[in-house]
Automatic annotation (TrEMBL):
Annotated region (Disordered), positions in chain: 257-301
Keywords, comma-separated and alphabetical: Membrane, Transmembrane, Transmembrane helix
GO CC list: membrane
Pfam families: MHYT
Domain MHYT: 15-206
Compositional bias (Low complexity): 288-301
Protein's name according to its UniProt entry: MHYT domain-containing protein, NO-binding membrane sensor
Membrane spanning stretches: 21-41, 53-80, 92-112, 119-140, 152-172, 179-199, 219-242
Keyword Disulfide bond applies: no
Amino acid sequence: MGGMAAVAEINHFEYGWITPALSYTLSVLGSALGLVCAGRIRTAQTPGARAWWGLLAAWAIGGTAIWAMHFMAMLGFAVAGTRIRYDVPLTAASTVIAVVAVGIGLAIVGTGRLAAPRLLAGGVFTGAGVAAMHYTGMAAMRLDGSLSYDRLRVALSVLIAVVAATVALWLAMTVRRGLAIAASALVMGIAVNGMHFTGMSALSVHPHERTGEVTGAEVSGLLVPIVLAVVFGVVGLVYALLAAPTDDDRAGTAYLDARRDTEPVGAVTPEPAPDPVGLRARSTLGQPGTPFPSRRSTPPR
């Protein structure tokens, strides 16, 4: 037709509602875990502990809520007349981009007082990183055709990514617990999926004549290691959150230490206050050599 290249038919939902439902579930799960981990950054007692929780939050949001969601949604992506394979190094690089972008964004907004310029800078950097992850993942596709993008929709997807990242960072620094975290995770899931499918709607595929076998890894070959990475990552995050001390643990430890410090010195060596549930050991888990300062000089009567 007048020298215009043909455009292949694209199906974003080859398996129906299953892939978008799973991708949304992953984005909500990762967002919820990331928000909880980010909350621990604010209460961490040492720089090392803050860095640890920042890393976990970056993995939860960048690795699970964003990248794993992207890959799950891509399972439902199909192009008529060609098989799709993936370049493994580029696919791995897209994972690193997502985690690093979120980690740096959290570092920008998490150091010092939260202010609008700091939040905007973190949101722009993280949003640009999320967009870079998406289009790097798209560049990793190998098929019998060339890709082209509608510039307006690409710009819209980047804008959505920046806005979503800014809101996510603000929530990470302000939301604390319960229903607020759940509601925020649901909203973040919508934003992440919105950015992905907006970017996908900008894509056109122009088929080529078959010149040989398409190189790269098939989706089936990547699915098992990615699913295992997500499962072990989520289990690790949950374990880290359950094993870490809570404010109640620290308060209990402070009370036990206060009792010990105020007991009359009548014996040769005063025994430590009872600790039947291991509060003292739990309160220092992951923070060796960092005692929690007691705010009480005397035990409650």
